C-alpha cells in the first residue's frame, strides 16, 4: 500500500535518497529497530514528531504521556508515522532558581531535534507556562508544519464550597498567614485544594494564557485550548490533532504561514479580553522575533489597552478553567471581538481555515463566566507600557487593579493619575523575604516597593517576585496591596497591580540599579511615566560610582547553562531570547538538508 507522497518530504533525505545510499542505509537500519518495516519507512509516509513535554518532573504536562497514544492513533489513521521524543522539562513552580531560565534551553534542544532528525511535521505538547512558548519558538525557527496540543487545565479546585484557584490561592493564603488567620497546616491544605487533578493551573495564569494565545495565534485546533485535562474531549482533541498534522504536512502549512503580524495582533487583543498574564508580552516578543515579525512592546498598549476584560477567571475574576471551557473558551471570546471589528479575520489557522471562519459564529454558553463586549467585567483591561529614568520599558496589568488601589492612588481629584511616594528597595527575593516584616525598614501605606536584581541576568531567567505583599503589620491594619515595581516578572496567577518586566534590568545597569531607599518616585499612569525625582547629575554620579565598584552585584552562576544564558540573553521588552539566535529563521527551508 502506498500513500500519495507529499511534495518535498524532508524525511526522504534520510530514508530514500538515491544520491546518498551509504547514509540512507545507515539511517534506515537503526530506525527499523522499533518495529517499522523497510516498506513503511520508504513508502513516502509523512514522519511526524510528537514533542513530548510530559514527564514525572513536569506534573502540569504529565497527562501528555496518556494523550500521546491518541495523537499516534490520529497520525496513523491518516497514513503518517509517529516518532515520539522528549523535550527538556520545565515545571514552573519546581525549577530552581527559575523556570524562566529553561525556556531558551528547551527551545535550543527542540530546534536541534526538529532540524537534525527526519521529521516532516510535529505535534507540540504544550501546557505549563514556559513549555508553550519554548515549543512554539522552536517550531517557528525550524518552520516545519507544526500544531500545538494543550494538555488542558486541571479541574476546578474547591475548599469549603468555594473555588480555589492555582497560584491565586497561594497569594491569598500568604496574606492570611501574615494576618494570623491561618496556621501552616491550614495553609498547605488550602493550597493543595486548588490542584485536584492532572493538568495545568486552572486560573488565568500564564499556562491558560499561553495556551489560549496559541489558539488565538492559529497554532491549535479551534476550541481546544480550554478543554480540561481529564475530560474525554481532551483525548478526542489529541486524536484530531494527530490526524490534522498529517494533512498539514501534505498541504505544506507551516508556522510562517500562520504566525503573521495579523496573528500576533489578534493575540494581543485576545490577551486583554481574557485578562492574560504579564508574561505574555515576553513570550510573544520572543516568538515574533524567531519568526521574523516586528512586534514592538508599545503595540500591547496601542492595540490592547482599550480592550475590556471579558473572561471572569481568577485572579481578575471568580471562576476557573472548567467554567471557562463550558462558557465557550477562546472562540466565544474571539467572536465577541470579531463583533467589534477587533480581529484580523483573515489570519490562517492550523485547520486550514481563517480565525474568522472558525470563530465568527461561536456563542457564549455561560454569561457569568464570559461577558459580552457591551457588559464587560472591566473596561480598558489591557496593559500599559511605562518608561522613565528608572527603565526604558515596563508593563502594568490594569485589569487587576483593586478598588482599594484605585481609591488610594488614582482618585486624587487634583491629579487622579499620578502618585508620588518614598521608595523602599529590595535586592532580589531573598532580601525581600528577610526584611519585609522588619518595621525598621520603614514601609508605610505611602511606600512604593521596588524589587531589583530579579531580571533575566540578575536572577537568571527572571524571577516571578515583583508581586510583593505588604508587611504583616500593614496587612493587619487593612493595607492589602502597595504599588510594586521591579525588573522581575510576576506570576500570571497574581492579582497584584505591579509595574514589572522593567528593562533594562539592574544587572544590565538600567536606572533601577541607581535607586536608593528613601528616594522619592513619581508614577503617572496617564503619561505612562515612572521617574525617580533626582537630578540627571545625581544619576550620573551614582552611575559612575557603581561602575567604578564593578557594577550592580548579583549572585554567581551555579550551573554552566546559567553562565551561558547570562552571556547571551536579551532583556524582557524584546523577549529575553538568546541574542543572535533570531538570525536562524525557517532553517528547514533556508539551511538546506544535512
Ligand atoms: Fe505548571 Fe501553573 S505551575 S501550569
Ligand atoms: Mg508563572
From TrEMBL:
First-level EC class: lyase
Organismal lineage: Bacteria, Pseudomonadati, Pseudomonadota, Alphaproteobacteria, Sphingomonadales
Domain of life of the source: Bacteria
EC code(s) of this entry: 4.2.1.9
UniProt similarity note: Belongs to the IlvD/Edd family.
Descriptive protein name: Dihydroxy-acid dehydratase
UniProt cross-references to InterPro entries, sorted A to Z: Dihydro-acid_dehy_C (IPR042096), DiOHA_6PGluconate_deHydtase_CS (IPR020558), ILV_EDD_C (IPR056740), ILV_EDD_N (IPR000581), IlvD/EDD_N (IPR037237), Sugar_Degrad_Dehydratases (IPR052352)
Transmembrane segments: none
UniProt keyword annotation of Membrane present: no
Domain (Dihydroxy-acid/6-phosphogluconate dehydratase N-terminal): residue spans on this chain: 45-358
GO molecular function, one term: dihydroxy-acid dehydratase activity
Amino acid at each position: 500500500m502506498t500513500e500519495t507522497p507529499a511534495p518535498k518530504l524532508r524525511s526522504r533525505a534520510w530514508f530514500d535518497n538515491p544520491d546518498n545510499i551509504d547514509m540512507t542505509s545507515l539511517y534506515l537500519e537503526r530506525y527499523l529497530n522499533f518495529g517499522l518495516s523497510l516498506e513503511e519507512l520508504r513508502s513516502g509516509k509523512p514522519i511526524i514528531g510528537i514533542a513530548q513535554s510530559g514527564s514525572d518532573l513536569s506534573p502540569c504536562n504529565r497527562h501528555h504521556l496518556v494523550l500521546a497514544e491518541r495523537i499516534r492513533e490520529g497520525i496513523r489513521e491518516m497514513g503518517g508515522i509517529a516518532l515520539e521524543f522528549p523535550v527538556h522539562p520545565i515545571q514552573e513552580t519546581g525549577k530552581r532558581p527559575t523556570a524562566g531560565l529553561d525556556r531558551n534551553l528547551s527551545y535550543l534542544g527542540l530546534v536541534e531535534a526538529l532540524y537534525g532528525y527526519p521529521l516532516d511535521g510535529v505535534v507540540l505538547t504544550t501546557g505549563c507556562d514556559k513549555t508553550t512558548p519554548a515549543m512554539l519558538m522552536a517550531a517557528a525557527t525550524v518552520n516545519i508544519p507544526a500544531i500545538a496540543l494543550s494538555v488542558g487545565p486541571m479541574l476546578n479546585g474547591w475548599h469549603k464550597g468555594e473555588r480555589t484557584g492555582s497560584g491565586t490561592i497561594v497569594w491569598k493564603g500568604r496574606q492570611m498567614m501574615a494576618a494570623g488567620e491561618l496556621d501552616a497546616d491550614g495553609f498547605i491544605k488550602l493550597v493543595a485544594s486548588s490542584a485536584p487533578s492532572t493538568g495545568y493551573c486552572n486560573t488565568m495564569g500564564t499556562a491558560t494564557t499561553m495556551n489560549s494565545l496559541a489558539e488565538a495565534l492559529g497554532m491549535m485546533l479551534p476550541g481546544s485550548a480550554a478543554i480540561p485535562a481529564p475530560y474525554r474531549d481532551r483525548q478526542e482533541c489529541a486524536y484530531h490533532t494527530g490526524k490534522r498534522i498529517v494533512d498539514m504536512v501534505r498541504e505544506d502549512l507551516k508556522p510562517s504561514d500562520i504566525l503573521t503580524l495579523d496573528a500576533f495582533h489578534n493575540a494581543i487583543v485576545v490577551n486583554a479580553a481574557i485578562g492574560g498574564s504579564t508574561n505574555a508580552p515576553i513570550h510573544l516578543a520572543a516568538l515574533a522575533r524567531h519568526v521574523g515579525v516586528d512586534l514592538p512592546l508599545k503595540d500591547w498598549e496601542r492595540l490592547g489597552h482599550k480592550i475590556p476584560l471579558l473572561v471572569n477567571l481568577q485572579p481578575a475574576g471568580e471562576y476557573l478553567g472548567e467554567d471557562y471551557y463550558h462558557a465557550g473558551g477562546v472562540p466565544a471570546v474571539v467572536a465577541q471581538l470579531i463583533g467589534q471589528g477587533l480581529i484580523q479575520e483573515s489570519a490562517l489557522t492550523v485547520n486550514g481555515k481563517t480565525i474568522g471562519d472558525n470563530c465568527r459564529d461561536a456563542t457564549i454558553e455561560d454569561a457569568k463566566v464570559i461577558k459580552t463586549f457591551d457588559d464587560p467585567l472591566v473596561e480598558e483591561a489591557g496593559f500599559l507600557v511605562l518608561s522613565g529614568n528608572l527603565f526604558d520599558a515596563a508593563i502594568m496589568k490594569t485589569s487587576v487593579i483593586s478598588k482599594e488601589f484605585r481609591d488610594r492612588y488614582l482618585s486624587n481629584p487634583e491629579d487622579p493619575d499620578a502618585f508620588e511616594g518614598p521608595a523602599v528597595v529590595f535586592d532580589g527575593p531573598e532580601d525581600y523575604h528577610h526584611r519585609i516584616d522588619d518595621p525598621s525598614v520603614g514601609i508605610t501605606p505611602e511606600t512604593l516597593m521596588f524589587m531589583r536584581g530579579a531580571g533575566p541576568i540578575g536572577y537568571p531567567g527572571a524571577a516571578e517576585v515583583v508581586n510583593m505583599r505588604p508587611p504583616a503589620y500593614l496587612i493587619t491594619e487593612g493595607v492589602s496591596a502597595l504599588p510594586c515595581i521591579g525588573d522581575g516578572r510576576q506570576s500570571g496567577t497574581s492579582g497584584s497591580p505591579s509595574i514589572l518586566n522593567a528593562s533594562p534590568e539592574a544587572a544590565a545597569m538600567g536606572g533601577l540599579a541607581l535607586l536608593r531607599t528613601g528616594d522619592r518616585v513619581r508614577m503617572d499612569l496617564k503619561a505612562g511615566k515612572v521617574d525617580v525625582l533626582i537630578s540627571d547629575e545625581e544619576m550620573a554620579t551614582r552611575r559612575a560610582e557603581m561602575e567604578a565598584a564593578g557594577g550592580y552585584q548579583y549572585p554567581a552562576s551555579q550551573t554552566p547553562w546559567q553562565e551561558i544564558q547570562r552571556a547571551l540573553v536579551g532583556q524582557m521588552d524584546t523577549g529575553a531570547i538568546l541574542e543572535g539566535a533570531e538570525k536562524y529563521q525557517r532553517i528547514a527551508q533556508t539551511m538546506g538538508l544535512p
